[in-house]
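User: Could you go from structure to sequence for me? I need the amino acid at each position, not a summary. Structure tokens:
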């Protein structure tokens, strides 16, 4: 039996100075990830210090907005939702929600694309939907 999940409004994030650029970019429909300027290695969540290397600077760059489902779980809450790790095309994995989907039709390795849903305060939150 297939079902499409009802829309869910996620809680509002609490931006701080280190995440302000990330949330500002989300308002513009962009997902930012961190990249080490010396090694070129990407990471998520974006942070001012590279988690892999002590050398180089971190710059925030827009992600392509595509990826594949690494793993997921259907949360049978009052308003059901799908929580997942998506492996971005650039390599990092992001904990996110899969929206506008039939949970019974999801599978690991499935291509997904970036979308945004509004949080309780209207802040766009990056999520993914089947491609």
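Assistant: Here is the amino acid at each position, in order:
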């Amino acid at each position: 039996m297939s079902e499409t999940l009802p829309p869910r409004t996620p809680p509002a994030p609490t931006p701080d100075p280190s995440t302000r650029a990330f949330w500002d970019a989300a308002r513009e429909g962009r997902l930012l990830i961190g990249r080490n300027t010396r090694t070129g290695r990407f990471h998520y969540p974006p942070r001012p210090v590279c988690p892999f290397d002590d050398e180089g600077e971190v710059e925030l760059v827009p992600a392509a907005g595509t990826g594949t489902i690494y793993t997921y779980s259907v949360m049978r809450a009052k308003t059901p939702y799908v929580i997942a790790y998506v492996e971005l095309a650039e390599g990092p994995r992001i904990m996110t929600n899969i929206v506008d989907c039939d949970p019974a039709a999801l599978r690991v390795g499935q291509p997904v694309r970036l979308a945004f849903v509004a949080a309780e305060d209207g802040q766009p939150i990056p999520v993914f939907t089947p491609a």
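One structural detail worth keeping in mind: The first helix runs from residue 20 to 27.
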